[in-house]
Amino acid sequence: MIIFGHPWVKSPNFYKVETIKDIQSTPPNSIVWLSPLCYSIDIAKYCQKNLVPFAIDIDSIKDSIFANILGAKYIICSTTLAKEIMPIAQNYLFDTQVLATILKESEIEDMAKFGVDGVILKKL
C-alpha cells in the first residue's frame, strides 16, 4: 500500500495544475494533479503524449477506465468509489493505481482490507 501525506512516510510532491502552462513551472520529478477528466481532458492528453506523470481526481468508474487508458499514474477518489473500482482495476490489470482520499489515519486499515492501492491524506 502507498501512503501519501503522512508525516512518517516520504512521498513525491503533487502539484495541482489547471493549464498546460502550469505544468511547465512544476519542479522535475513532481506529479501533476489534474481536476476531474471532464475539465482536464486536454491536459491529460498532453501529459500522456509528453510522458508527464499525473494524478487525476475521478468521480465515476467510467472516468477511472478512461484515466487508465490515458496513462494516469494515479486516480484519486473517495473511499467508497475506491472500493468499487479496485475489483475492476484488478480484473482489467490497470497500470494506474487507485488512491482513496482519507481524513483520518484510522481509515488506512479499512482501505487495506479492500485491497486499495493507496491512500492520500486529505490535508495534502
Number of strands: 7
What percentage of the residues does DSSP assign to strands (E)? 15-25%
What name goes with the CATH superfamily?
Answer: Aldolase class I
Nearest-integer average pLDDT = 94
What is the architecture at the second tier of CATH?
A: Alpha-Beta Barrel
Q: What is the CATH domain class?
A: Alpha Beta
Number of spatially distinct domains: 1
Overall geometric form: globular
| Spatial gap, N to C terminus | 17 Å
Q: Helical element count?
A: 5
If you compute it from the alpha carbons, what radius of gyration comes out, rounded to the nearest whole angstrom?
A: 14 Å
Biggest β-sheet description? 7 strands, parallel
Order of helices and strands: EEHEHEHEHEHE
CATH topology group: TIM Barrel
- Which class do the helix and strand fractions yield? alpha/beta
Helix content: 25-40%
Biggest sheet, strands in spatial order?
A: 1-7-6-5-4-3-2
State the low-pLDDT regions, or none. none
